[in-house]
Design a protein that fits this description.
It is a single chain. By secondary structure, this protein is an alpha+beta fold. It folds into 8 domains: 77 residues, Ubiquitin-like (UB roll), CATH 3.10.20.310; 77 residues, Ubiquitin-like (UB roll) (Roll); 80 residues, membrane protein fhac (Ubiquitin-like (UB roll), Roll); 81 residues, membrane protein fhac (Ubiquitin-like (UB roll), Roll), CATH 3.10.20.310; 85 residues, Roll (Ubiquitin-like (UB roll)), CATH 3.10.20; 76 residues, Ubiquitin-like (UB roll) (Roll), CATH 3.10.20; 74 residues, membrane protein fhac (Ubiquitin-like (UB roll), Roll), CATH 3.10.20.310; 380 residues, Beta Barrel (Porin), CATH 2.40.160. The chain is built from 17 helices and 42 strands. Strands 25-26-27-28-29-30-31-32-33-34-35-36-37-38-39-42 form a 16-stranded antiparallel beta sheet, with no helix packed on it.
Length: 972
Amino acid sequence: MAAVAAATPEDYEGRPVRAIQFEPGVQPYGRDYLLEILPIRLGQPLSLPAVRAAIERLYGTGRYAAIDVDARVEDGGVVLNFITQGNFFIGGVSVSRISPPPNQGVLVNATRLELGSLYTDASSKQAVNNLQSVLRNNGFYEASIEPRYEYDAATQQVKLSFVIKTNDRAEYSRPLITGNPEQPPGEVVEATHWKGWLGWKKVTGVRTQDGVQRVRRSYQKQERLEARVALDKVEWDSDANRVQPTLNIDGGPKITITAVGAKISRGKLKQLIPVFEEQSVDRDLLVEGAANLREYLEGQGYFHAQVDFAAKSLDGVPATGARRLGETIEYQIVRGDRHKVALVAVQGNHYFGTNTIRERMYVRPASIIQFRYGRFSDTFLQHDVDAITALYHSNGFRDVEVKPRVVHGFRGKENLIAVYVDIHEGPQWLVANLDFEGPSDPNREAILDLIQSQNGQPFSDITAAIDRDNVLDYYYNHGYAEATFAWTFTPAKQPNQVNLKYVVQEGERRFLRNFLISGLETTSADLVNQRLMLDHGDPISRSSLLETQKRLYDLGVFARVDMALQNPQGDERDKYVLLDVEEAHKYTITTGFGAEVAKIGGCRSCLDAPAGQAGFSPRASFGVTRRNFLGEGHIVSFQSRVSNLEQRAVLSYEAPQFRGSPNVSLLFSGLFDDSTDVRTFSSKRREGSVQVGQKLSKASTLLYRFSFRRVSVSDLIVSPELIPLYSQPARIGIAEANYIQDRRDDPSDAHHGVFNTFDGGLASKVFGSQADFTHFLGHNATYHPIGLGSRYVLARSLTLGWLQPLRAGTNIPLPERFFGGGAQSHRGFPENQAGPRDPETGFPVGGSAILVNQTELRLPLLGENMSGVLFWDAGNVYSRVQDISFRVSQHGLNDFNYMVHAVGFGVRYRTPVGPVRLDLAYSINPPTFYGFKGTIEDLIACSGAHPPTTGCVQTVQQISHFQFHFSLGQAF
């Protein structure tokens, strides 16, 4: 029987394709999509190059690790069977919790396994090795790491979790010192801080590196600026579970850096000369130090200062010797005469106004306060030239010339200089014609709207770069992740005009296949799904992905939100987007301690000082917050504050994004408050409230609130006949609405913008209230920059409010009244001391209306961080809204319904958390009133005496003309 020859690929070529099959049956894509992307068609003759192209196309998707093609003859044609093995991609990485350090985030990052990237066995082994290295650096030398895998064939994902088991963390032992340390080993060991009072400390990576840095700093303090400290190795003793670090140290010579010819502090030398920071002494660093010193002196008005340096050996060996006892590096300074910048003038500019140019300049003329000698240096001047040139270039002036001139002996005075900036603008180049190739018809109109370099517009490289960024941003946000942009230009026929050509290659559009979410433990999946900005089949938009990430972070329940494309290099139309989250700690505990020093103290039973006496109030705070309650992103919080002036506790339940809406919040709260911040009385408030917040826009928020509270007062310091009236407890049920609009550039220190708040409410027996009244409090503040660079700001604030009873004879409870005065209100008064007063004791009793206007001129003072404020506060707290008056004189000692004016000066110092301020105010027309010297018992006894006995005489008192306030942040 003759043998049958095996079929060769050529035997199938030319035969019609009867069927295309895939094995296994479940493929990364649906059958229709696979048949669409393959270059083989049913019924067409089989071509071997087409088969090879089909294999390459499948590999190009990135979804396949191996592909074989089997063929058989059937019905005179050929049946192709693609036998595939799929890749797996990293869908999430987690590490079991251990006693930190290191924390989980460090361990996950140490694996170097990127979300969505291709998984290989080698990458898993390398991840284990990386984790072992991090654990050893932190003292865990006997840790075991077991990787576990969770495969999902449907999405080709593998989630890796590394289970770590550790023994006790190793401790340090006495380090081995090698090299030439130039100091006793004991001092080196002490500098490491690896040994504490109770013995050697536990090993951590941060502690090890800090120890090495501490040793380096110890050599710096000894002026050994070239000292070399290196951690050579760390040996572990398995029996004792201790590690011995080996420090290789070369102490180097002592190098003293001094400055002669000018008095410069040691701290300033360390700041200006980089050898201290680099811990290396070479000529380049010394030259840089000389330049820094020269620039510093120029900033002090010594515009012709000369700085040089020389090295002097201490042991007779030349300073360049390899080994020496030490040397002194002496900066020789010749300051020259001190000059003042009398004039900074810009000339030749026509297209831009002088103010526009001056805003971009560092060089400034002398001013009375901020820059006493002006600000000038060659470096600053060159910076200004570059900035002005860039401004003109960006607006089409390609041939602009900016030439500075410094004139000495200005106005015949040797110490005055003038700086002139001469500008020759040259012609402005324009776009004669824009040729835009590449955008498809659906995108062309939207793209053209983004282009700035239209026909007839100024031409510049900067504008073209902006066009490129805008166009690519559009494409990236519409699914074209591979879009490219190129531009060229050629001279046009018209002079100073160009023909501009933009070429776009859109590339293939990518769509969302689905989100693959991992890392949820207690968080509801619906909570995440409601915040996804893309749906299946949508073009993959970069901005939508970033907004999704932001929304999830805004929930406050995730410590980490990672997002990545699965199979990023694969050539496929539909992409999975991986979303891997790490839930934050559920419980947060906060504590704090502080104190307040102001006119808050004094004897509580004495009536001698109605405006208060200087006192000290220590305070402590404690809070517990439970986040992600019930997995819905809700927050339960308890916050408390205790001092000798106030005892407060707040329990709240908040749904920050109510029913999935990022613009709506719901808040339930309960308040317990006992306070004596107004010296007239102690108040007690027990309150429950519910509030709905609605964010109308980025700048505007509307709050709807209903509160039900019980307020009462005690320890009243008023006339005895008024005590029964004021001391009655009251139940208040009030519905309120609050509108907030914030368009300030910086809420902590605004330079321009508007800030408005309007709070209105209705207390009625319909809500269970014992007092019927309306409540309104409005605040409007505006900020206007004046002059160059917004260095001067005119700020003003107006506060208007009233309480209006709805029924005759209704008494508004004392704690509900307006109290004003102090650092955040009217600076002509001590805290809460404005408005009506008790006619016998002189203590404030609050009012039913408030009107305060504040005006400030904020101006530069010294340098960049210290500024000043000239302010004028006018207003008062009034008995009734009908009593609001603008008159400035007081009509009798019982009249407080007039406008008090105060002027003053304040100092602001800029810090990372906002400006620290001190305000000194002079009240022009402070109120004078009747007071009473003695105790409350004396007052009660006197009120019943007829005629008054000796000692029962009222005294005339007055709010001091001078007030000071110290606090954080601007007044408004």
